[in-house]
Give the backbone structure.
Amino acid sequence: MNLIIIGAQGSGKGTQASLLVERLGLRHVSSGDIFRSAIQNGTELGMQAKSYIDRGDLVPDSLTIHLILALLSEPEYSSGVALDGFPRTRDQAQALDQALPQMQKTIDYAIYLNVPQEKLLDRLLNRYVCEAHQHVYNIRSKPPITAGICDIDGSKLIQRSDDNPENIKHRLHIFFQQTIQVTHFYRAQKKLIEVDGDQPITKVSADIFEAMGLQSEFVA
Ligand code: AP5
Ligand code: MG
């Protein structure tokens, strides 16, 4: 199964992708995580992406499309992926659509996590991610067992450098002006599942599984 998770900044793409990946045995492909790791490791990709991410702008399609399509064509991604944060422009969606048949792949569902804009700033300002693997926490809705430490790998929890109010407002503007068009693209293909993302994490997950006709570990 190949899934796309679409949603505004803080809607829970990473959170829900992790649950889907664990349950369905998919590979998690987060474009944002890939860019942040590249920046942390000082690679050429990281150097190219950094200024865009620091400003809250989208990394250019020319860089992003090639990066993700090259990854998807690798054998380890053949048994299914959860795409988190890609595609987020119409050109990215079209490029993905054109490339998938050559890889004998198709998108099964595009899941849109719909959360009112006014809830998102608060979620992001209370978000922490772990230094080692970017596991996601929230001081209010998903606190770690031990304050400041990742439950999964024991690394330190930090705030993302793009999680400041100015940057968040700019990223949200881009989402509601531009990325929302990706939902229209998949709605036209009858692949869009729209889920109310303004509910507890387990309830959102249960709704996603129910919409895909699958049994969830959580009760819908
Ligand atoms: P990316 O890393 O994808 O960031 P984003 O789009 O801003 O989305 P977030 O990761 O901030 O939010 P999320 O939806 O994953 O929410 P999360 O699960 O963490 O991209 C970063 C940057 O990279 C972009 O700005 C751009 O520059 C570049 N980039 C990436 N992809 C690109 C592309 N395709 N093209 C061009 N450029 C690209 O949850 C948020 C918080 O809320 C957490 O604390 C979580 O615990 C909590 N939470 C989650 N669900 C719930 C719930 N149901 N109730 C209460 N709290 C919840
Ligand atoms: Mg994310």
Remarks:
- The longest strand covers residues 2-7.
- Residues 13-14, 30, 32 surround magnesium ion (ligand 2) (CB under 6 Å).
- The chain is about 45% helix and 15% strand.
- Helices lie at 13-24, 31-40, 44-55, 61-72, 90-99, 117-125, 165-188, 201-211.
